[in-house]
Amino acid sequence: EIRVRIAPSPTGNFHVGTARNSLYNYIFARKNNGKFILRIDDTDMRRNSEESEKGIYEGLKWLGLDWDEGPDVGGPYGPYRQSERIEIYQKYIDYLIDKGDAYYCFCTEEELEMERKEQIAKKQPPKYSGKCRNLTMEEIDRKLKSGLKPTVRFKVPNKIISFNDGVRGELKWDGNLIGDFVIRKSDGLPTYNFATAIDDWKMKISHVLRSQEHIPNTFLQILILEALDAEIPQYVHLPLLLNEDRSKISKRDGALYIGEYKEMGYLKEAVLNFIALLGWNPGDGEEILSIEDMINKFSFDRINNSNVVFDFKKLEWFNGIYIRRKDIKELVDLSVPFLMETDYFKMNEENYKKLFSIMRVEQERIKRLDEVKEAFKMFFVEPSEYDINLIKENVKKIEVKDMVFLLEKTIEELKMEDNWHAEELEKRMRDFCDRIGTKTKILFMLLRIAETGSKVSPPLFDTFEIIGKDSTIRRLTNCKK
Ligand code: ATP
Ligand code: MG
Q: pLDDT tens for residues 430-480?
């Protein structure tokens, strides 16, 4: 059975990097009728936060990446929070000590630091000397009784460690270059590598898809699994996502929380499509992909090797595409929370209905949902003043006094219109221009500014229709003054 997992630590923002890995794990599981597992790696007690853990659940839920096993939903291989599995790790640490594959180490920080300095002075790569490897039982007992708190180290064998990475092929490292590493800290908690190796084994994880910065860890985890005679999963190392300055996107440098993309007005479909292509492509040139497309097309051999810079412009482009594809009601409902943040919008039946007509003309124009706050304003709020320079610059070849006259005549004309719909209004205004010998271009620009206070707007007469007769007449009258 295909079983994959993500194991984020609740120590900061669940960011795009983690989200991209979650997506790949999810689609790989779905493609193979496998299981997608959420495990919370919360052994760093000092940095854990409840809010951060909540962010993981909410981020995944927003993206629709539902998990089959996890701390909240349970499952056959729980618990799924590492802090609740300490006894399990302890059992295997004891086992490795008994077997002679691990040992107590009483070296202090100062001693280790001295050792490192000496090695560097001799131009040797720093590596733990193995000083405590051969302590006698008596020495160990004496030190333990005197109250010293040892770490436990893993005895690294003298051999080449290798594995076949799903993206990069065979990778090797010489065990001789690796010092005996700590698997249990002096506070009794397992280290990251130990807990991860045990959990992947005990949770029967078949494939580990995570990013490349874990390759050095993978060698250590393999050593632990080999010592335990455990099944070794297939490792697949994914490229890293980089900030524009090519630094790694990282919790430690305050990467954006994935939920903030929602708050910025991105649609989850756009975010998913965008992150899917950060490190993988379907190979057929297709860029617009639904989750189903991704599930159908996903394969390891189309994952790229090199790291990817995160490009907001591209995300915006995807977002525009998905906004244009969305059904009006859904788009309106997604926009309401943004409008509620403004001081001009009140939720009631009439205003809600009005949003549908506005959205129909704005859908083509917005790239992010938060833009509705600005873009919808003119439909609810009449311009409080007019910028005479804006009018002079844009309504050319006509004197101000003629503009006033033109507005006056237009108002009279519009008052006669009982069928207040875009087409009727446009026809009436075109006829009117013919009759009085004015270019439509001139009049329509004047009307656009008078109606909206701005020289750009959705199609003019759609705007008139939505704003309505009373408000339109009032706006033109105010402008005339
Ligand atoms: P920290 O700074 O605390 O190490 P992090 O940002 O690296 O945090 P982790 O919790 O260590 O996040 O990693 C969670 C998952 O996200 C792992 O699978 C890791 O490989 C992946 N990951 C982390 N950063 C990136 C990145 N910049 N690009 C792609 N994947 C990433
Ligand atoms: Mg990390």
A: 999 999 888 899 999 999 999 999 999 999 999 999 999 999 999 999 998
Is residue 241 classed as helix, strand or coil in its secondary structure? strand
Answer whether 173's CB lies under 8 Å from 243's CB: no
**Alpha carbon of 211 to ligand 2 centroid (Å):** 9
d(CA 40, CA 379): 47
Q: What is the pTM (predicted TM-score) of this model?
A: 0.92
ipTM, two decimals, is: 0.97
Read off φ and ψ for residue 27, nearest 5 degrees: -70, -35
CA distances to 263, 286, 346 from 337, in Å: 9, 33, 11
314 backbone dihedrals φ, ψ, rounded to 5° = -65, -40
- What letter would DSSP give residue 411? H
pLDDT at 402: 86
Give counts: helices (H), strands (E), the chain. Answer: 21, 11
Distance 85 CA to ligand 2 centre (A): 21
User: In terms of Cα–Cα distance, which of 240, 238, 233 is closest to 164?
Assistant: 233
**351-367 exposure pattern, b = at least 16 Cβ within 10 A, e = fewer:** beebbebbbebbbeebb
pLDDT recorded at residue 353: 96
Which region among 152-156, 259-263, 403-407 has the lowest average model confidence (pLDDT)? Answer: 403-407
**CA-CA distance, 161 to 171, in Å (whole number)?**
8
Ligand index nearest the alpha carbon of residue 310 = 1
Q: Provide the pLDDT for residue 250.
A: 92
Of the candidates 92, 236, 86, the residue with the CA atom closest to the CA atom of residue 154 = 92
**What is the SS3 assignment for 39?**
coil
What integer pLDDT is reported at residue 3 of this predicted model? 98
* Structure token digits, residue 191: 């280290």
Point out the ligand 1 atom lying closest to the alpha carbon of residue 250.
6
**Hey, which residues are catalytic here?**
251
Reply yes or no on whether the pLDDT at 336 is more than 90: yes
Mutate to test the pocket of ligand 1, among 211, 215, 236, 245 (most ligand atoms within 8 A of CB): 211
Residue 94 carries which DSSP code? H
Do the strands 207-211 and 234-238 form a parallel or antiparallel pair, or are they unpaired?
parallel
CA 287–ligand 1 middle distance (angstroms): 25
* Residue 480: how many other CB atoms lie within 10 Å: 16
| Gap between the terminal Cα atoms of the chain | 76
In angstroms, the CA 206 to CA 25 distance is 11
Judged by phi (left if over 0) then psi (alpha if -120 to 50, else beta), residue 100 lies in left
* Ligand 1 site, CB within 6 A: 8-9, 11-12, 17-18, 20-21, 210-211, 214, 240-241, 248-252
Tokens, residue 307: 């790291």
Identify the residue whose tokens are 């005549």: 409
Residues pairing with 5 in the sheet: 37
